[in-house]
Amino acid sequence: MPNTYSARVPAPQFHQLPSTFRPPVREFCRRILRKYPNTVAFAVIGSVADSTWESDSDIDLVWILSGRRRKRWHAELEYDYSGVVELVPLNLKELRRHVAQHSSLAHSIQKGLVLYDAKAVLERLKQTPLGPPTSEWKQEAFEFFSRRLDWGIDSYQRELTFHRKHCRSGHCHCHVSEILTRAVVNLARLLLIEQGLIPNSKAEMRSMVPAVLHSSRQRAALETALQAHHEKRDLSPDEAAELIRLGRNLRERLTRSLANQD
């Protein structure tokens, strides 16, 4: 395979990664650089960055480019969401906005592993003081994941209608969209941020959760959400019912908390 990297630009530093992740990340980065030579940086965030990954973990790869992604970038990169590499694409304008808003993603990138930094974008970010996420970012994040909670509830209600008509005990194949899982996990993360805590991985979330979820039922529901998110799977109707109960509680509490900041 021909060398993808310019002699004036250091090649990505894959040696920083656990050996199990090096081949898929190396292949994915090379694929991106062939299709998008305007790529300026790659970083790894999440459990691999803070060494809390497990044998079945995926790896969160932040891809930063100058300019826009093409509409069919998923197809041209042969990106498989269910694969081991989970891509977080950003252009420079999007990255600057995250940094200006001190978003949780900006914090994660700042603490992440830098694999490639052709324009010293990540070097500058690591030297930039970041405070708590701004009220504007928190409100935008709340509205985004609140809408997705509603979509997840809609998915549950559709499945429940089907379940009542067609499923017998022990023969249920209903499943509720993973969008509900992501909504609940991110609303819980936002509530932690409201308490001044910024988790950068699921392990950090688990250690911080007792600060905001005081009942064992709520903590069990969040653990279900975290595990389903880890496994990238849909939910059973019973699991979804518990997550909806938790999601509505989180939304209520965030609505009150964010209103007090106006």
Counted up, domains total 2
Strand content: 5-15%
Distance between the termini: 56 Å
Instruction: Name the structural class.
Output: alpha+beta
Strand order of the largest sheet: 3-2-1-4
As residue ranges, the low-confidence spans are 1-7
Q: SSE order, as H and E?
A: HEEHEHHEHHHHHH
Q: Taking Cα atoms only, what radius of gyration do you get, to the nearest Å?
A: 20 Å
Number of strands: 4
CATH class of the largest domain: Mainly Alpha
> How much helix, percentage-wise, in residues?
40-55%
Report the total helices.
10
Mean pLDDT: 91
Under CATH, the topology of the largest domain is which? Four Helix Bundle (Hemerythrin (Met), subunit A)
What's the story with the biggest beta sheet? 4 strands, mixed
What is the second-level CATH architecture of the largest domain? Up-down Bundle
Outline, from the CA principal axes?
globular
Detail the topology: elements first, then pairings.
Layout: H1 22-35, E1 39-45, E2 59-65, H2 73-76, E3 85-91, H3 92-100, H4 104-110, E4 113-117, H5 121-126, H6 135-166, H7 179-194, H8 202-208, H9 216-231, H10 237-259
Helix pairs in contact: 6-7, 6-10, 7-9, 7-10, 9-10
Features:
single chain; 4-stranded mixed β-sheet; 2 domains; globular; disordered N terminus; 262 residues; Four Helix Bundle (Hemerythrin (Met), subunit A); 51% helix; Beta Polymerase, domain 2; 10% strand; alpha+beta
